[in-house]
């Protein structure tokens, strides 16, 4: 379990997702637009009245619901609506309660695709490969080093 935790801790910074807060007050969103990365989360916090976060059609911001889009349902003061955006896209949304949208309660989230850059390994040509002069010079692990790593691993399993 400790080894698994260590691997997870090492991988976490690579895929560190963020949580972005949007306040919903008086029929407006603050901030009104967000630029986030795929995998990030947006949390809309209702600070007054009843509000509903509803996805609208792509393109210019309108009050027209997007078929199959998200809809938080009505949320009240102190409640939040939380949504993870897993892939890159431009998402428009509105406050779907009453005349809030018609009065300007629209917003957008620009989700940038998260890219993973492969690690480039240098390639060697036959001309650049030289015969090793000793095992330590070539980067190979000696039998003594192998034994030492095995002992350390064995002890760590029982200690942790």
Automatic annotation (TrEMBL):
Keyword presence, tRNA-binding: no
Keyword Cell division part of the UniProt annotation: no
Position of the signal peptide: 1-16
Transmembrane segments: none
Matches recorded under InterPro entries: Cupredoxin (IPR008972)
Highest taxon listed in the record's lineage: Eukaryota
Keywords from the UniProt entry: Signal
Name of the protein this chain belongs to: Phytocyanin domain-containing protein
Organism phylogeny: Eukaryota, Fungi, Fungi incertae sedis, Mucoromycota, Mortierellomycotina
